[in-house]
Structure prediction request, 275 residues.
Amino acid sequence: MLTSSSVIKTLFIVGYVIGLHLLLYVFSAGSALADGLSKPPLQKPFYVEKVLQESAGSKTPGDRITSISSHFLGAPYVANSLIGGPAETEQLVTKLDGFDCFTFLDTVEALRRSAGADDLPIQMTQVRYRAGLVSYENRRHFFSDWVTDNGSPIKDVTAIIGQGRERRSPKKLNMKEDGTLWVDGVDVMPRMITYIPAGELDAKILDALDSGDYVGVFSPRPGLDVSHTGLIVKADSAIMLRHASSRDGVDRIIDEDLMTYLRGKTGLIVYRVRQ
Prediction:
């Protein structure tokens, strides 16, 4: 039979163990924040709901994109996070705590379309895959895949923004100069790519950009449409590129002056959500 003193001793030990676990939890959370994770893990539905609620009052789709994407500032750059390939079954990935430049835009656009946390996987499927069919072949591997479907909610406004100074470049997407493929298991696609030369991006053209525009850095390499993607954030007189940077010493989502980033680059492609 347990005596009162043994019960008290047992309760003391249990309380001590629980308290120790809580202390370790707080310490580990604090360590994560100190390591640069300025946001809590975004896997949890309640946090997705918070992100959506804070953007609910946005006046335009671009404002909503800007609001949603701000929650990911500081999130780490993570390459090759998608699962699937020519010999591997494709799986839907909704990783929200690390991105490359494409998965960052996928995630922001899927959240923009989402009515709630439960809706996010459905919208991610629509954003990332043609006809909403999850397979490696249906994945939108190229930035310009976003605007090729009839009825796409995103349109190519590069020519409008360019105001007559844009250029057109015929591409055989996915075919390298030597005839091999950039992405195995994906067909070569003839496509005309419109871009604004970086040297033409003066104040008049930059003024035509809107916060929340999705942008790609035009690639002159055969078989590619862009070398990088991000979105536009305009604040006062500043025009920023919000993007997942893989630059050494950065490796996270940042805001960077657009024209500074475009130094030495060929040009800009601009997509915008239809109103």
